[in-house]
Amino acid sequence: MTGFEDPSHVTRYASRRLRMKGILRTPIAEDEVRALKAGDVIYVSGLLFTARDEAHKVLLERGEPFPLEGLALFHCGPVVRKRGDGWEVIAAGPTTSMRMESLEPEFLRRFKPRVIVGKGGMGEETLAALSEVGAVYCHFTGGAGALAAQRIKGVREVHHLEELGIPEAVWVFEVERFGPLVVAMDAHGRSLYAEVGAAVETNLEKVLARTKEG
Length: 214
Fold this sequence. Notes:
By secondary structure, the protein is α/β, with parallel strands linked by helices. The chain has one domain: Alpha-Beta Barrel (fumarase), CATH 3.20.130.10. Helix content is 34%, strand content 30%. The protein is built from eight helices and nine strands. The strands form two sheets. The protein has a five-stranded mixed β-barrel. Helix 3 (53-62) links the parallel strand 2 (40-50) and strand 3 (72-74). Helix 4 packs parallel to helix 5 (124-133). The radius of gyration is 18 Å and the shape is globular.
């Protein structure tokens, strides 16, 4: 069971065994990511780019507009406004990641981002691709878009803006200590979402058993 809309269950589950691992700076090396385990807490500094489902489709069809390997991918449709010749990020909360499940495995294999940031988790095919490529999926708290914006120091560039619009465009952010991010799916085949789902099912079975006994 994956893709919880309410990731608070995962946060509570992970909080029992969280391990602070420090800051990863882009470009992030594969061995840095393979050293991480589900339950680790990290921050990202450097370049983080956004891509939701429409952006995934465009990049897979046309190729990367800049090197994506080693960067952090954020499932996000930011709220931004024009300020002079640049952009100001008002909020940047995570998008439900299961929207990208059908596209993410191929995206990972082609472009090799090392960290994916989103909410709600992803499925078994993405989990397999994370292990194959050497990448992790990190949970970022939903509803914390203003907090995320504080960690964005500037907009480096934006791609496909006229075609896709602000929420779906590919934004490249310069970030400093972006997080905290909980590694919820690691490069060793472990998913906290699946573990939470299994624990919930086990507890439900126990409750049903007690109900029948009563």
